[in-house]
Amino acid sequence: MKKYTTIVLLLLFSLVAQAQQKGTVLIKNGTVLTITNGTLEATDVLIKDGIISKIGKGLNAPKGARTIDATGMYVMPGIIDAHSHIALDAVNEATSPVTAEVWTGDAINPMDVSIYRALAGGVTISHALHGSANAIGGESETIKHRYGTVDPDVLRMKEAPRTIKFALGENPTRVHGGGSGIVPRTRMGVEAVFRSSFSEAREYMKKWDDYNVNKNKKGFKGTAPQYDLRLETLADILRGEIIVHCHSYRADEIYMLMQVFKDFGIKKLVFQHVNEGFKVAPELAEFGAMASVFSDWWAYKFEVYYSTAYNATILHKNGVVTSINSDSGELIRHLYHEAAKTQKYGGLSDNDALSMITINPAKQLGIESRVGSIEEGKDGDIAIFKNHPLSIYTIPMMTIVDGVVEFDRENDADDMRIYADPKETIDVTLHETGHAGDRCMQDAEFLFHE
Amino acid sequence: MTGLKLVFMRRALLILFLGLSYLTSDGQSNEMAPVTRTYAIKNARIIQAPGRVIDEGVLIIKNGIITAVGKNIDIPAGARIIQADSLYVYAGFIDGLSHTGVPKPREEDLSKKVKDPGNPPNDIAGIEPQKDVRNMLDPSDKSVDEMRRLGFAVSHAVPHGRMLPGQGAIILHAGETPDAMVYKQQVSLFSQLSGAPGIYPNTVIGVMAKYRGLYRQAEQAKAYNARYIQSAAGMERPVSDRILEAFYPVIDKQLPVVFKAEDVLSIQRVLDLKSQLGFNLILADVKQGWDISEKIKNSGAKLFLSLDLPEMEEKKSETDTTRAEDKKEEVRSDSDLEKQRLQARKDAMIKKYYQQPALLHSQGMIFGFSTLEAKSKDIRANLSKLVENGLSEDAALAALTTSPAQLLGLSATMGTLDNGKIANLVITDKSYFDKESKVKYVFVDGKMFEYKDEPKPKKNGDAVKVAGKWTYNTETPQGVHTGDIIINGEEDDYSGTISSTVSGDTNDLSDISVDGDQLSFSFTVVIDGNAVLIDVLVTVDEDTFEGTMTAGDYGSYPIEGERTPEK
Question: Where is the signal peptide, in residue numbers (chain A) (predicted)?
Fold first, then answer.
């Protein structure tokens, strides 16, 4: 009896996958949109142990591997969202204008059903960004949508470089100036916060350098500067180890940040939202800054009135690496529609439009050597669509991460929650989930004044 | 009757009542020293340790120590004899983490006093690792008696607070003074992932970063201090810092960190901190560990499982089935089917909480129990649930006695009924895990507590009295809110108001309803120009209440309060 109980218990408790799984799968006879190497008709893609091992015709599946018939369907790289706040238990540590020491990687919630919803829209990777309450927010985490685990480590994309969130304009000035009565109260204040923070970090680095040079000398009596996680992170930005993703709207302050970064020798810069980017597109290209934009979302606050749906096209045509993002647990489900809008507004080619949700966001996250296109040797992250993904009639059919089928429209259960809430009130008429919509200012509302 | 006589009568009555209450004091150790400190428990079923039972045995206690256990033992002269025929004797239970004996401080909203919310003073931010729970103990706190009645003789007690509330101690649930209660001081550094309302560190990402920062600074300061002690001359004097110094014994691995980590994600966040910083860890009040038991095991952390369990709604009784059949047509509708599926999913989830100890035990994990979040009135029923769901009585007893003793380093003196151990005992009329059993005696540190009557159970179905004036406080990420709730009228016709000392507003209550000891009501406030409906659901326990306040999409927050005494 005891043994039986144990077995039953083990069965009950073993539903959740623990390790990062790598799958083997053969996708047969689809129209393969490689993004970096054109479109290949009636072509097979073989993913072996999570890696794209072969692209060609008449490929055979390894023994026991699953074969997916993609005849008549479109096979594209998994969609990448460079700006998202899904799968996070905390988005903003909004209490201080500079919180470089915090990290959204500490708040990853692998059980957020938004991950599955994103998968149902072909999205395999998202950038779990800190919010925009602070001039210098927290480090962020690039996650792979390996749904079905309770282990946050499984979601982390280990190969992804470090990123951090900055913010300009109304959000930081209203939260800290308006809410708490401290700097920054104005756009000038935001610039001052950057300059003083980086100056402080430089001094900190110098003190450590001096200490390290002298500490082993005979009779050395000096002290090391006090360890400071905030300044350590800022120093790593100065060292070029972290990509800065900056929330921005207005051209003047976009230009301002580039000047600040030039003065401090910081090169890795991606602007987020960047609604007035079209006004400073050549300057962005010259700096080498990239841009991650909404397709056509604006006028939700004063600083976002001067906007155009041609923004992505103008930036792209000026040589700025541009992506289209969601910033939303709802929009993330149809980024392929968002990308298609660049064809309506600007007439981009299919390939350029799809680049905006694949290889370009991959470049912005520093992961283009692993993902963002269908190439041998890259990760087996694939989205399969019924029609061309830019068609308004298309339907996402299947989404694969590391060769593992994470979403299959033919096999799509109703209740995809990993844990149910033992205290929930069961009410089938409940519509609001609290997960959709803009979470950029989550955890900061209480400081938001005016 | 003359006035003088009346006064005398009153005095006499007063003396009489005092005397009576002295004689019948239920479960209270006599204030006067007992005549003898030698006890003999005769003819009892003595469970010395899980699986080690003596039938019709004798146990002798002298001066607070167990001096003999077995059959055929001579009873010393002068011993107070307890005829324990058919009674069960267990070692006193050990609570792995609790606030027993530590009164909860009144919540105040201190964040308003902070000029820069990004840089608050440590005490307001909840960073007080230098504090010692010994300074907060109150032997007369009702939690001591409540836990003792359940058979818990010993607690690992820690202060209330947020991220770093202070250092824990092992306390005995007896003793006239705080010092008399303390068995072992400074046994742990208590930590939680709780942020400070409205100020830094506010969120879990802030708390994690702050924890790492403090720990690294402490390591650095400690190393510098060591260098300074070696050769101070010519070196800058290290500055004293009580916060960082509190980490020194942790860094030396002389003091473990005890982290409250309930859900599956918090546990893994704490394990991340452990693996990055390297401290010895006790994971406590764990509720959702079943899917990550391997990870917990591999971390080497010690484990205490929460005795707070979610409640499963009772299945409909037989008499309801006929009614259900009448409604068959309705049951077939899509929404009803979906409701059924969701309910089944929820019940299956709750079952996992109930089965967790059995599962972890079958995986060879050693654990005790903790009661930080558990209500004392639920603890015995919850222990029974765990046993009903596959945990053997021996394993349950181990988790209450030998395992916590081992995990907390107390095995030399506690956890079993053996010669030389401290006389901590629980004596029951049936097996402790039998739902019908009653605790008859508890010995703590050789002091006897006798329980003749169970505390009166609340009559089920009887609505509690809610009318009157209450003060409440609730903590949201924005800060602590306090104010008054006034409820007028009577059943089926209540009205009332709620005020907030923060906003200065008073709002009318709607939908006030009372179901047994559950009080619920709603009110509307304006947030950012939007009307937000706030729902409050609390459990009333005579003059206090506890529950949750749900503010639409803003989330749910705990709320508690107490009745304002009528003048």
Answer: 1-19
Partner-chain contact B216 A90, CB within 8 Å: no
Q: Which of A93, A112, A136, A218 would you mutate first to test chain B, the one with the most B CBs within 10 A?
A: A93
> What span, in angstroms and rounded, lies between the C-alpha atoms of B398 and B421?
16
**CB of B235 less than 8 A from some CB of A:** yes
Q: Domain for residue B119, yes or no?
A: yes
Contact A90 B204 (CB under 8 A): yes
pLDDT at site B549: 85
Residues B424 and B511 in one domain: no
For residue B64, the domain's CATH number is: 2.30.40.10
- Beta-carbon contacts of B439 under 8 Å, excluding residues fewer than 6 positions away, are B149, B150, B151, B426, B427, B428, B432, B451
Peptide bond between residue A184 and the one before it cis (omega within 30 degrees of 0):
yes
What residues are paired with B447 via a beta bridge? Answer: B444
The predicted-structure confidence for B2-13, as pLDDT tens digits, reads as follows 444 544 555 544
Alpha-carbon torsion (B303, B307, B310, B315), positive or negative = positive
CB contacts, 8 Å: A182 with chain B: 115-116, 118
For helices B142-149 and B376-388, angle between their N-to-C axes, nearest 10 degrees: 30
Write phi, then psi, for B499 (nearest 5 degrees).
-115, 155
Q: Which ipTM score applies to this complex?
A: 0.93
Are B217 and A227 a contacting pair at CB < 8 A? yes
In a domain? residue A107: yes
CATH number at B506 reads 2.40.128.120
Q: Is the dihedral of CA B234, B236, B241, B246 positive or negative?
A: negative
Same domain (yes/no): B173, B72: no
Query: Distance (Å, rounded) from C-alpha A53 to C-alpha A51?
Result: 6
Look at residues A227, A202, A79, A209 and name the one whose alpha carbon lies nearest to residue A144: A79
CA A411, CA A59: separation in Å to the nearest integer? 25
- Contact call for A102 and B528, based on CB within 8 A: no
- The yes-or-no verdict on residue B319 having pLDDT over 50 is no
Q: Is residue B353 within 8 angstroms of chain A, CB to CB? A: yes
For residues B535 and B421, state if they share a domain: no
Residue B19 contacts by C-beta under 8 Å, 6 or more apart in sequence? none
The residue range of the domain holding A314 is 78-215+222-372+435-447
CA–CA separation, A32 and A16 (whole Å): 33
Domain count, chain B: 3
Burial class (CB in 10 A: 0-12, 13-18, 19+), A426: middle
| pLDDT tens sequence across A25-50 | 999 999 999 999 999 999 999 999 99
Tally of CB atoms within 10 A around B214: 22
User: Which residues are within 8 A (CB) of A278 and not within 5 positions of it... i.e. 6 or more apart?
Assistant: A308, A310, A311, A314, A315
**Looking up tokens 């046994």, which residue turns up?**
B187
Look at residues B390, B425, B457 and tell me which one is the last residue of a structural domain: B457
Q: Which domain holds residue B206?
A: 95-284
The CATH number linked to A123 is 3.20.20.140
Two tokens, residue B419: 């010669």
Give the predicted TM-score (pTM) of the model: 0.88
Split at pLDDT 50, 70, 90, the class of A12 is very low
A66 occurs within a structural domain:
no
Pair B208, B270 in one domain: yes
Question: B52-80 in b/e burial notation, b at 16+ Cβ within 10 A?
Answer: eebeebbbbbbebbbbbbeeeeeeeeebe
Q: Which of A429-443, B314-328, B341-355, B486-500 has the lowest mean pLDDT?
A: B314-328
Nearest to B359 among A9, A229, A414 (CB): A9
